């Protein structure tokens, strides 16, 4: 249900409309000023997708919205209006108080509903009665979302994109974090972009990922960088996907191949898959974090059994189980490096070499981390 459900009497709603409460469509400033937003949609709508920095302080609960929607369909607008007043009216003060409390700590807040219609107008009017003037987004969620998607496509199409590629464990993400002109797609998607790339915390909703990406691209453009640096990704990052027009624009860039020795790659992968992962598990699972980590990592190996083949799969599983047993016995984790080395050599490397051989993207440069940074800086300096 995407219409703005009515609350109050018809006369009250018309009176609110005549007030000409402040509207704004300064959408770019929301992004660049990191402006907080009050989303007055119902929680079920908010969970499907919301903007960075938005807080859900709904005008109606999910159940209130559901009941009013049913009445609207069955008996029309006037009856829905009457039910809305009956259900929500008694909660007016507590909802105004919640909005006011947030505004007191975030005085630059704006608010929105789905289309910038009745719900956000009512919220504005109630706040005005409490002595608080607050703009609402013109066109609401729908208009701001449309702006973000258009800007993502435009900026990605106009950007001079440099795509950092390289075998697993070369430290592509570490390199991205050292560059001011980079956008970290994996961080936006909360995923490491591999079979073992899951974080304990879930990935955002698809819509949230797209909005985060749009915010990042708008801010990147505003910083006036001459190049957009991203990590080489497939269309999907975990269960999320980069919008096709944006992804196609990214593919118009040039590849930079990051290189590293096998020992460097083993160390980097060990830090990511074992050391840093264990830190996450200790926070999320203070009781038996090692066991939770083992179960998830073991499931990751199981997911790639087909590609490994039975013999390599069996060897890696044995190495992994032995390393974990030693970890439990002594607390030592270095024994995980042999199975990581085998995973890199026998699983990731052949897959990467095949994919890069097929890639139509031109290779601009190859080098280690220091050489790549120097190359990218030299390109920036030439502008």
Automatic annotation (TrEMBL):
What EC class does the entry list? transferase
**Keyword terms of this UniProt record:** Selenium, Transferase
Q: Which residues form the Rhodanese domain?
A: 31-153
Q: Which InterPro entries does this UniProt record tie to the protein?
A: AAA_SelU (IPR058840), Rhodanese-like_dom (IPR001763), Rhodanese-like_dom_sf (IPR036873), SelU (IPR017582)
Which GO terms label this protein's molecular function in UniProt? transferase activity
UniProt xrefs under Pfam families: AAA_SelU, Rhodanese
Q: What is its EC number?
A: 2.5.1.-
Which SMART domains does this chain map to?
Answer: RHOD
Q: Key word Lyase present in the record? A: no
Family annotation (NCBIfam families):
PRK11784.1-2, PRK11784.1-3, tRNA_sel_U_synt
This protein is called: tRNA 2-selenouridine(34) synthase MnmH
Native species? Sulfurimonas diazotrophicus
Q: Organism classification, top ranks?
A: Bacteria, Pseudomonadati, Campylobacterota, Epsilonproteobacteria, Campylobacterales
